[in-house]
């Protein structure tokens, strides 16, 4: 019964505490999002920290505790990047709305997945409902380096439409890994057989030429294309185009005709590296 | 009674002073925020930055980046002998279930072994780990993520289907992996106000496939309805049913 006398006071206290919480969060967001420290600022502050060994804490964490926290976080990031292949190069965020249960943020994120660059903008909504936190991505806009490829742009459009940023990153990861694999494979063969292997378009190109050391004009062109379909599945396609001079054709038509077919079978059975290795062996032993 | 009166007065005094204190804090904060907003034009700090502020800013930045990794489908942090990973799934923009893995590195071998995990048993985790993990952890994670994402995606499609059509869809059977399911659905015939009954059966043969491979849609009498099965094959379940509703309503009004 006395409770009802004090109710208006308690209501006002609760409202004030809520407002204080909101203002504190808003202040933190504004500071975090508008400040950017230059590298010199950061270096300077690390030096001045090292000068001071004692620090008054006032119930807050000491500088050395904060430093330890930062070191642990900074160790996690590179490991995660190494594990996933994702390297974020720049990020900015703006908090559009923040209440106890709901946060709306606008993000701009750039990075690389292996050698492929990407740039994303999206809105992130997080709602807390008791114990559960739900996260929804919307307004997704993606710019990719190899965006001129029509397959890639179809995939990007359909991903933007449904806001499925996780599928985008997962598909990008597999796609980029294939590029990496191809690059490493080309490099391996170029280094191992420099006299036979040429890469007219370099390590990033999509074909490799094997030149016969014995028969001039006799070349095997291996084309290795990497497609990304609309659903985000990476499909590598390899094919072999022999370039054969006339005399060789006259002498051994059938065996030359069989080369692409047997290459394709070898791919299925033994994989890419072994199949290419075999081709090179054949070329070296060719009369 | 005198004591009671004193108690009430005490309480009132306390509450009033608390309100006073909170109002002061609130007003100070309002001013602080107003000033911060007006300073928004000037980026960066002119004078030597406070080491604490820089540290806190950097810590916050790191935390944000680590959180952003969730959107790539894989996030985590170092653990004493390896790494603790969370695999995140999503469907149409909403982040859904997360699954956890702990990988340990044996010595400096650079090879990883699977320790604890929270992946459900119908996902072939052990087989994938045996075949891929030691040599190629990224490929292992990539394929595992696909299994998990497509499973959660299929489950979510079914949930959305039931949520959007609570009265017209009845699930007859589904398995835990959600790659085999059958349900009844009914479409109102505009003119008569009666319902047409249908049955559909879907099977996803590829556990990493987002679209079903075998779809049959039949009327109550067992007559095949190719338009329906085509929609169910092409679109997520709830969207397929939406289109089925729309086209059926369309034909009955014109027919």
TrEMBL record, chain A:
Species annotation: Catharus ustulatus (Russet-backed thrush)
Transmembrane helix as UniProt keyword: no
Record has Coiled coil as a keyword: yes
GO biological process terms on file: CENP-A containing chromatin assembly
Coiled-coil blocks: 13-76
Domain of life: Eukaryota
GO cellular component: chromosome, centromeric region; nucleus
Membrane-traversing stretches: none
Name of the protein in its database record: Centromere protein P
Keywords: Coiled coil
From TrEMBL, chain B:
Domain of life: Eukaryota
CDD domains: DRWD-C_CENP-O (cd23836)
Pfam families: CENP-O
Coiled coil start-end: 5-39
Intracellular or extracellular location(s): Chromosome, Centromere; Nucleus
GO cellular component, one term: Mis6-Sim4 complex
InterPro entries assigned to the protein according to its UniProt record, in alphabetical order: CENP-O
Protein family membership: Belongs to the CENP-O/MCM21 family.
Cross-referenced PANTHER family: CENTROMERE PROTEIN O (PTHR14582:SF1), INNER KINETOCHORE SUBUNIT MAL2 (PTHR14582)
Name of the protein in its database record: Centromere protein O
Species of the source: Catharus ustulatus
